[in-house]
Design goal:
CATH architecture of the largest domain: 3-Layer(aba) Sandwich
Radius of gyration: 24 Å
CATH topology of the largest domain: Rossmann fold
Shape: globular
Number of strands: 22
Number of domains: 3
Strand content: 15-25%
Distance between the termini: 69 Å
Helix content: 25-40%
Structural class: alpha/beta
Strand order of the largest sheet: 2-1-3-4-6-5
Number of helices: 24
Largest sheet: 6 strands, parallel
CATH superfamily of the largest domain: Thiamin diphosphate (ThDP)-binding fold, Pyr/PP domains
């Protein structure tokens, strides 16, 4: 490195040596020394109209790319505060992302400088695995390498480096701790032989065994090993919303999302031995209700993070290990064992894979002239997608309609709102996915409320020529909130849950893309197929009926008639 090399250039050089090819960003003067150096290192900058979307894009890139982590670079002050939501979302969903944020000069601390006056590290610390301020140029390489290693090892998560503008622009003589051509890889923990034997014995003795895969399974890259084990043992595999596509949709042992499991439990056919494979207990697995994992089931939990073991209920066997290492060991030992025939149990789970078809299958596809039934509208649009399309689901009720019809192209290629319940993720997720998967199309299924959060990113899609089709379920309201208010307070008490029937498609056209409002069932599939074939960013505005309520939403809100309980919508009721 010469005297002319700046701190910003060293950041670009270090990221390139660590294999980074794409960075999601929004311009800010604090970042210029880095931004202008990126072309020299063959780093592509994908620039956004809002930092929140840039952060969500890095999140989706981490999930869907071979890189294994995403990078978002944003400016100081409001740039950083705009990114707090995607940082927090990545934290609660355990997504490995590196956020690099600018800040005012170190020499101007406590001078009321531009875009300063508060401690960005103190704000970031509770919502990251690690947050650190870089105070000299010589430490840039090893601190970036350390940040990537922290983000991707153990339980993944976001990390943040605050790099003041004077460090960015300062000339560099040499790096104090140079890094190699790739980050230091931490060896993944494997299960003991006795743990493997015990788990397999429980599965062999079970009548209705089940593997539920979660986000930990996706980031351990365990699709091949879990498939090998499922084929040897015959044990069915389901996926929570973080792990859709962990096995191919058509695989005999794959039973899709957990909706079918919940249906089996409700019909009196509950699983009796459950492996939680990188799947965390909580809202995505029915909480404490026992509606997905029965309270009397034997539970074997595999997780790289020991703090997740036994959350909400005791488990019968704890395996603190990487999911891929665990299923490689399971498959190796299972091939020498005799396994029961699971055909009947698989058929039970497969029968409930599409739970809304018995409810809405015979309903009119158009509830009245010019208004579509949401279940049929989403199903028709989903059926029109190419098999390799990445699917992003965003919203409350709208995401629920999409989730019961979705077919994933593979692990990390189907994404939805996570534990943060953050609406407006779809544009950023779609852009990050399109950059990570240039040979695939990307489809958004979003409610009109959620889509409005980051509508401006249609411009980003157009500028970067990304083949994204945004399918908006437009019912002119915040549907999940409207339903909740109706159930709890009565229909005459609705408050700020209405929206206009906006022509979102025309916004896309105005920003250089394509769009169409669709009001008839017959036009849905052709509109989607034409949009996919064009590879032009397109918004399809589906006018759907707000009065058709998704059953899952009613279940989430709860039943106000239950005696001796205080109703708490979306959470557990409180006994009086």
């Amino acid at each position: 490195m010469t005297m002319e090399t700046t701190g910003g250039a060293v950041i670009a050089q270090t990221l390139a040596r660590l294999g980074v090819k794409d960075v999601f960003a929004l311009h800010g003067g604090h970042l210029d020394a880095f931004l202008v150096a990126c072309p020299d290192e063959n780093i592509r900058l994908i620039d956004f109209r809002h930092e929140a979307s840039a952060g969500h894009a890095a999140d989706a890139y981490a999930r869907s790319s071979e890189a294994g982590f995403g990078v978002c670079v944003i400016t100081a002050g409001p740039g950083f505060t705009n990114a707090i939501t995607p940082i927090t979302s990545a934290y609660v969903d355990a997504i490995p992302t590196l956020f690099i944020v600018g800040s005012p000069p170190l020499r101007e601390v406590e001078t009321n400088p531009l875009q300063g006056g508060f401690d960005q590290i103190a704000v970031a610390a509770p919502i990251t695995k690690w947050a650190h301020r870089v105070t000299n140029t010589e430490r840039i390489p090893d601190l970036i390498e350390k940040a990537v290693r922290i983000a991707t090892s153990g339980r993944p998560g976001p990390v943040l480096l605050d790099i003041p503008i004077d460090v960015m622009f300062m000339p560099v003589r040499q790096a104090m701790f140079p890094v190699g051509s790739r980050p230091v890889v931490t060896d993944q923990p494997a299960p003991s032989r006795s743990a493997v034997t015990q788990a397999l014995e429980s599965l062999r003795n079970a009548e209705r065994p089940l593997i539920i895969a979660g986000g930990g399974a996706v980031f351990s890259r365990c699709s091949s090993s879990i498939q090998r084990f499922a084929e040897v043992s015959g044990v069915p595999v389901a996926a929570n919303s973080m792990a859709r596509g962990i096995l191919p949709e058509s695989h005999p042992q794959y039973v899709g999302g957990i909706a079918g499991v919940g249906g089996a439990v409700a019909r009196g056919n509950p699983p009796d031995v459950v492996i939680m494979a990188g799947a965390r207990a909580g809202m995505f697995l029915g909480g404490r209700s026992g509606s997905i994992i029965p309270n009397d089931a034997i539970v074997i939990q595999i997780d790289v993070d020991g703090s997740e073991i036994g959350r909400l209920r005791p488990v019968d066997q704890s395996i603190i290990a990487d999911c891929n290492e665990a299923f490689e060991a399971f498959a190796d030992e299972a091939q020498d064992l005799q396994w029961p025939d699971r055909t009947s149990w698989l058929e039970t789970l497969q029968a409930g894979r599409y739970p809304y078809e018995p409810i809405f299958g015979e309903a009119p596809k158009e509830t009245r002239p010019g208004v579509l039934h949401p279940y049929h509208a989403v199903k028709a649009a989903m059926d029109a997608l190419n098999e390799d399309t990445v699917v992003i689901m965003d919203g409350g009720e709208s995401a629920g309609w999409a989730a019961v019809n979705v077919r994933s192209a593979g692990p990390g290629l189907c994404m939805a709102n996570g534990y943060l319940g953050c609406l407006g993720i779809s544009q950023g997720f779609a852009i990050g996915s399109a950059i990570a998967n240039p040979d695939r199309s990307v489809a958004i299924f979003s409610g009109d409320g959620a889509f409005g959060f980051n509508l401006q990113e249609l411009d980003t899609m157009v500028r970067h020529e990304l083949p994204i089709v945004a399918i908006v379920l437009n019912n002119a309201c915040w549907a999940i909130s409207r339903t909740g208010q109706d159930i709890v307070f009565g229909e005459n008490r609705r408050s700020i849950v209405g929206l206009s029937s906006t022509s979102y498609d025309q916004v896309a056209v105005a920003l250089g893309g394509a769009g169409e409002t669709v009001t008839t069932y017959e036009r849905i599939a052709p509109a989607v197929k034409e949009a996919l074939a064009s590879r032009i960013p397109t918004c399809i505005n589906l006018i759907v009926d707000a009065d058709v309520v998704n059953p899952a939403i009613s279940n989430m809100v709860g039943d106000p008639s239950i005696p001796d309980e205080i109703m708490i919508p979306y959470y557990e009721n409180i006994p009086t």
